[in-house]
Design goal:
Layout lengths: L7 H13 L8 H17 L13 H14 L1 H9 L6 H6 L23 H4 L9
Length: 130
């Protein structure tokens, strides 16, 4: 699957929103941008975390940060803010097609975060991860 990249204008708007969120750790903007793009790749591809391409970083590090942001509600707040920005609306529309999580077909759920929270990462409210 191709890389998922935010253009500079999109990233500037997203990072501004993240910096306003006291629970979101941004740190180095380039590293944070890579992290956000990694999570977007996961949600758009429907792939398992272990299949994250190496150019996005170590899958486990990306997943751990993703988990912390989920628990802190960062993605939910980001979605609500981005959904109100008309110039970022296409991020929601571009990522609405996603494979269902096995538990959606009746498989036993594993303990942990609800995979539907990943939809917030992709800025699409009806997506789930595998």
């Amino acid at each position: 699957m191709s890389q998922v990249r935010l253009n500079d204008e999109q990233w500037n708007k997203v990072v501004k929103l993240l910096r306003q969120d006291k629970r979101a750790y941004v740190g180095d903007e380039n590293e944070c941008r890579g992290y956000v793009e990694a999570v977007l790749w996961i949600t758009r591809s429907g792939a398992a975390w272990r299949l994250l391409p190496a150019e996005y970083g170590r899958w486990n590090s990306v997943y751990k940060r993703y988990s912390r942001w989920c628990e802190a509600g960062v993605w939910e707040r980001l979605l609500s803010q981005v959904s109100q920005a008309p110039d970022l609306e296409h991020l929601i529309l571009d990522s609405t097609i996603m494979r269902a999580h096995p538990s959606a077909a009746g498989a036993e759920k594993k303990k942990g975060l609800n995979p539907s929270v990943a939809a917030v990462v992709a800025l699409a409210p009806s997506c789930t991860l595998r």
